[in-house]
Each structure stands twice: as structure tokens, then as C-alpha cells.
User: Fold VOC family protein from Halobacillus amylolyticus.
Amino acid sequence: MNKKFDHIGVAVRQLQESIDFYENILGATMIDRYRSEAQGVESEIAIMDIDGNRTELLCPTNNTTSPIARFIKQKGKGVHHVAYQVDHLDEAIASLKDENIRVMEDTRRTNKHGRRLIYLNPADTEGTIIEFCDYPNEH
Assistant:
């Protein structure tokens, strides 16, 4: 199974302040900014690019149900997840299951950019939230 780094997700409390830092201090360009109220997402997201490397800034829109809000309450703001692009998400999930690595089925979705994704269970990844994703419309 081929994998390559796709992006890092960062949980933030104030999206515009974080965007300003990434643009003004790190020299990033904002690729997109959107809001998702889908169950299990409930966040406003800004995709930042620095020389081809992507960071997703994730700000909760619902402090009761957003997984980003829960993350910030438990661990504080900062790195939320690391994402790796795989050739075929379904095949990658099957391979993980063969290795007894669990995925969190309720996180499986397709985002507005056509990226299919799922999170691996942090209990099986040394505590790190890892996302596997693919871009089927690019094949």
C-alpha cells in the first residue's frame, strides 16, 4: 500500500487569528475556507498552503457536539491529526483490518473537495489520530 503525506490538521479556537498567523508569519496562502455542519465534523475549515504543503485549520462550530471542540477540551489546541494519501481508500482499509488496525467507521466521509477519508483508531496508532484519504476523481 503506497502512502504519502497529504496534510496536517490543527485544532484552533479562533480561525481568523490562525489564518492571519499562517499568512503573515509563515507566508501561507489560503486555498479554501468553508464550514461543514455535517454530523461528526461541525467545524469551519481553512486550508492553508506553504510551498505545496497543506495545513487544515479546524475550528469547532458547535462546542457541544463538534469532535474538534472535544479535542480542544481534552488536549488543548494544536495538532489534531496527520493525513496520508493512499492509492485506494477501500483497499487501504481492508489492509489495515488484516493487520488488526481498527478504523473509526463513523468518520468515513467525502469532503467538499472530493477527498474520501477515514480516521484510524488512535488506540491502535500510539495515540496519534491518523487520517487515510484518497482522491478518486483524480484516478
